[in-house]
Amino acid sequence: MPIRIPDSLPATSILEAENIFVMTEFRAMHQDIRPLNVLILNLMPTKITTETQLLRKLSNSPLQVQVDFLQTASYHSSHTDPEHLKTFYYTFDQIRDRKYDGMIITGAPLDYVDFEDTAYWDEVCRIMEWTTTHVHCTFHLCWGAFAGLYYHFGVEKYYLDKKLFGVYRHKIWKPTSPLFRGFDDRFLAPQSRATEVHLEDVEKIPELEILATTEGGSLAIAKTKDSRQFFVTFHAEYDQDTLKLEYERDRAKGLTTVDLPVNYFPDDDPTKEPPVTWRSTGQLLYSNWLNYYVYQSTPYDLKEMPAFVGGKGYRKKR
Prior knowledge:
- The protein is α/β, with parallel strands linked by helices.
- The chain has a single domain (3-160, 194-236, 280-317), classed as Rossmann fold (3-Layer(aba) Sandwich).
- Helix content is 31%, strand content 24%.
- It has helices at residues 10-17, 25-29, 47-58, 82-88, 92-95, 121-134, 143-153, 199-203, 242-252, 279-295, 312-317, and strands at 3-4, 22-23, 36-41, 65-70, 89-90, 100-105, 135-141, 158-172, 186-196, 208-214, 218-224, 229-232.
- Strands 1, 2, 3, 4, 5, 6, 7, 8, 9, 10, 11 and 12 form a 12-stranded mixed sheet that branches.
- The radius of gyration is 19 Å and the shape is globular.
């Protein structure tokens, strides 16, 4: 079934060209079903690219999905046309009284910035607190995962000696989890980060469980045991050329010590076109999350949504 997004959103024409089922608002209004309401807090500077990547993955779902986009009010992106943000994005004050079946909090290029030094940290904290009463299931992605683990549970992030950059093999810790239905025993996915959390710090939080790790033992996926919060450190939604563009960007900045992305370019030759080896991972990850942890468990009437309670003691201390 389709995703439901504004007809004039730039991603619409891109997805339609890829033969992805995108429903017009007019047609959606005439279907007698309740769509899943999903909110995306997009913290990436390249907002249109991130919109398209995530919508592509959310399109493989069993039900109609209504997607709203959220931006920060305390920090304005300089990489996206203000008219685009005005047309397609809400600010928190505009949606704070709504409830959502699912939410995605994206990554952000803030590896080397402490959380409290982030320009919009206070606002993101307010939004993460709001998710505990207004979102049935929240999917924290990359920087969003580290921010969520820190805010909700006090799990510290640590800087890596060397950026984890490339396409890595991942090990599933809990193969019986519905999140991994259809997955191979080992799966490939892009990583692009210079921080990590220590597994032992996650393991000692009784409300959390580890679902997968990256080769080398770094956290890949964790979730709360009540399945209301997911924390994913990799980017299964990335396009074929995303790592290439990041590599070229860093080289253009004069960062000559930047390594080639691991397991990405054929023969480690950046002039060769990289194959996509993680597409099925991305489709399964997002469709399984949306199906088993949002659609299958969200209340039909969102007013009946119970509050998420895990980690609340830490939040009160802050």
